[in-house]
Automatic annotation (TrEMBL):
Name of the protein in question: DUF4595 domain-containing protein
Organism: Chryseobacterium endalhagicum
Superkingdom assignment: Bacteria
PROSITE patterns: PROKAR_LIPOPROTEIN
Length: 290
């Protein structure tokens, strides 16, 4: 992966962030459930991703007590700001995720989500509180899955901005797959019609392409899918984290006339097909066996 931590998360495109709340539960999220390249190898240890470092500096860190996920701490691309995402459990499922930054003035993101028995998010609300009330918003999300209930095919977000009570903006993200892996997330942003429908004539399209997947274990699949789903709503370049395998490049094409940004990603694996570093040994993954 490396490449200066995903090229500072694809050159910091579309500044997006991360999470905090109560963490009492016995939620069993089945670590290593998305077995990736393990092919059911019974010798493969059950483990969770604990930490990612770049040249010795922590970029991401996750707290799990037994098999209960508590929070994730993630460095905001290209800054010294870290967002901590803490989860709250409702009926033993993740029901709330709150993202709080370490820097004064950071926008706080408070998600309420509904999660099914597969760990999929199928509805959600985000209340974003900014220092400037004009930058605050409330978003409601509807998630659509395929007939198997496994593949996320579309997310529709409707947003109320600056304290207004009516929806005025939308983001519609559609997903294309290569096998079980998300190959592309096409995100159209625009305004709503008077009847509350997306007005595609106003939409500007950003395409996130996750290319040339390996056949190994995605380290993020060892942690709850709901956490990375909400994170990716804020940072869509990370939707690949919902896939069972690892892309070897991430390409972001913003609306014209901006140029696209391609970020190569490399991996060195252990004997059980888990990534442990990039090829330059700069970016390193640390796991905890369960």
């Amino acid at each position: 992966m490396g490449k200066n931590y995903l090229f500072k998360i694809v050159a910091g495109v579309f500044f997006g962030l991360m999470v905090s709340c109560d963490n009492s539960s016995s939620d069993q999220f089945e670590p290593s459930a998305n077995n990736g390249g393990n092919d059911g190898n019974p010798a493969a240890p059950a483990r969770v991703l604990e930490k990612i470092t770049l040249n010795g500096t922590v970029q991401e860190e996750y707290t799990v007590n037994g098999t209960v996920f508590h929070n994730g701490r993630l460095r905001d691309a290209g800054t010294n700001n870290y967002y901590t995402g803490t989860v709250t459990y409702i009926n033993e499922k993740i029901g709330k995720i709150k993202f709080l930054g370490t820097l004064t003035g950071s926008t706080a993101y408070d998600f309420s989500v509904t999660v099914d028995s597969k760990g999929n998010v199928y509805s959600g609300t985000c209340t974003a509180t900014a220092t400037d009330p004009l930058n605050s918003f409330v978003s409601d999300y509807v998630f659509t899955y395929d007939a198997t209930g496994k593949k996320l095919v579309k997310i529709l977000e409707k947003r109320k901005v600056a304290g207004n009570t009516a929806y005025s903006q939308f983001t519609e993200t559609t997903f294309t797959y290569n096998g079980e892996n998300i190959f592309k997330a096409s995100s159209a942003k625009g305004t709503l019609t008077a009847t509350g429908a997306p007005n595609m004539a106003t939409a500007k399209l950003t395409v996130y392409s996750y290319q040339n997947y390996d056949s190994k274990v995605n380290p993020f699949s060892t942690l709850p899918k709901a956490f990375f789903t909400t994170w990716s709503l804020l940072r869509p370049e990370n939707f690949y984290r919902l896939s069972p395998n690892n892309p070897t490049s991430v390409f972001v094409m913003p609306p014209a006339p901006a140029s696209g940004v391609n970020t190569p990603m490399t991996y060195v694996y252990d004997a059980f097909n888990y990534p442990v570093s990039d090829k330059d040994q700069a970016l390193k993954y640390t796991y905890r066996n369960l």
